[in-house]
Amino acid sequence: AQLRYSVPEDREPGFSVGDLAKDLGVEVRSLAARNLRLVSEGGQRHFQVDLAAGVLLLDSRLDREALCGQSPTCSLHLQLVMENPLQLHRVEVDVLDVNDNAPQFPKPEVVLEITEVANPGTRLPLEVAEDPDMGSNSISTYELSPSKHFALSIKVRGDGVKMPEIVLEKALDREKVPVHHLTLTALDGGNPVKSGTARVTIHVLDANDNPPVCDPPISKVLLEENVPVGTLVTKLNVTDLDEGPNGDVEYSFKTSNNAPGKFTKLFSLDARTGEIRTKAPLDYEESSAYEIAVRARDKGSPAMEGHCHLRVELIDINDNSPEIVLTSVSSPVQEDAAPGTVIALIGVKDSDSGDNGQVRLQIAKELPFKLVSSFKEHFSLVTSGPLDREKASGYNITVRAVDSGSPQRATQKTFYLRIADVNDNAPNFSSPFDTAHVQENSLPGTSVFSVSASDPDEGSNAKLSYSILDNGMQDAPISTYFRIDQDNGTIYTVRALDYEQDKVFQVPVEVKDAGSPALSSTAVVHVFVLDENDNAPNIVYPSVPKGSAFHQAIPALAEPGYLVTKIVAVDADSGHNAWLSYQLQESAEALPFQVERRSGEIRVAQALRESEDSHRLVVEVRDNGTPSLSASVVIVISPEENSVQDFSKSLDLPQPSSEDTNLTLYLIISLVSISLVSCVMFGLVAARC
Fold first, then answer.
1. From CA 75, how far away is CA 81, in angstroms rounded?
2. pLDDT digits (tens, 9 = 90+) for 500-509
3. 109, 134, 423, 534: least surrounded by Cβ within 10 Å?
4. What is one cellular component GO term in this UniProt entry (predicted)?
């Protein structure tokens, strides 16, 4: 007969597999007699027969997986042999699978790689877990730990084996999560469920999907101008989340081929480190700021690049002196310019900024000028007081510009301002009154005197011309006596002068400049005519016609000392030329008469004899001039017996003319008049000054 039993593999030895006696239809008592024995086909003894109970018992614990492996069915074949009669029975024991094995992965950790640019839906196959159990106790399903990026997909092969796969559901970013750690769990269908796990490590392979990034993308650096060449400006902070060549960054300036940046001449860039340094002196005045564009490129394929923008702002230092610009200078300037007259327009500039560029202008305080601010950085130089060219014909004006930097810087510029003359000064004689002397009878054109005047003005305002004014003090116009050289002021005679007619002249001289309007002043030259011995003595008594003699009778007995007569003579000249002396001309016979040298009195010198006839005397009157001039008169003296001395007649001399009599008075009056006129002129000059 064919008997079939089943036994779970996890039963302990002694477990009753089946009731042989009952199934064979044999009495339990007869089993022993019939020598019932069990023969295994495989040579392994897993069962035994309990003859007393007539049952098939489990002799050892069964392991289905060891006995049958992965076979879907696991059966152990036994043979039962009974004697008396001999009978052979076949027993097939199905070893029933029990969920005594948990699923197990070939490796406890699975390492996978996926590129970060993989598209969602990409699948990563996994190794199948193994479970020796069969049927429902074998692997039923797989589970994956939760993940934002990955999910589990299970495929069933033709043989029914379930194949787990990891499916990418969301794009990866290696720079955010370079490695993903998951847990894969294999679950069987037993009860209770057994499971096995494996650690799944997914490495995200870098792709050049991240450009270099500047932090910050736009930055500003403050840098003093004139820093030494090679000064570190900044070091760019650039990050590339990629790795390897994809994250290896090289730096370069970003310029345009058509307009290369000026900054490339002033700054250097280390292509490896990203350090920016100065390579030339920086000048705030040339440019106060520089915009620098830097390209950061990685070495990926294709390469990606980022851009950094750096603004370098220069801090101004006071390295520039102020500059003075004379926009316009009105030179010369009239000396009568009113206060506030604009002399010059001055511009000032300082290339520095802030306080370093704030400029103050200064000029010397003692100058008659001041600075007035017109508008920013422009000034007017104006007069602040009266100008006088005669005191200062020009000014060296030094304009000093000082900035407000620290330390201060200054510059100065000097220019010469010429003062133009204005006819504001009248000519001035060296003396308002002068005295000159001229010899009478000098030839016309004789130089009498040279007046001198000065005018502190210049040019035409100081060009002087002299002229003689007519004062009306002479009978004839003064111009008929004198003329003056209008250029040098020399006074000349126009005609011969006669001392006896005019002894002194007041010559008013006017000097006038050539300015507009012309200014003038006057001076008086007193010209005294010096007497010349040009007049012979004039015998006024006795007055006899020329060629005649004067007859004078005297007593015959006149004694010595008797006054015969007196010769009276005058000389129109003056001084020594008018000093007269009287004398008798020598004669062949001795005369008993004598003449007084100074008085002209003729007296009897010795007693007369009775027999003497008349005497003829020639009396010569001579002046004291050089050469000396003389006049003579013939006097015939006749002694008479009855002649009586008529003293009254003798002494009754003709009176000189009123002109001769008052000559001294005229001289006195002239001197007094000159003195008075001089005083008046001095007073006028003093009052004018």
1. 19
2. 888 898 999 9
3. 109
4. plasma membrane
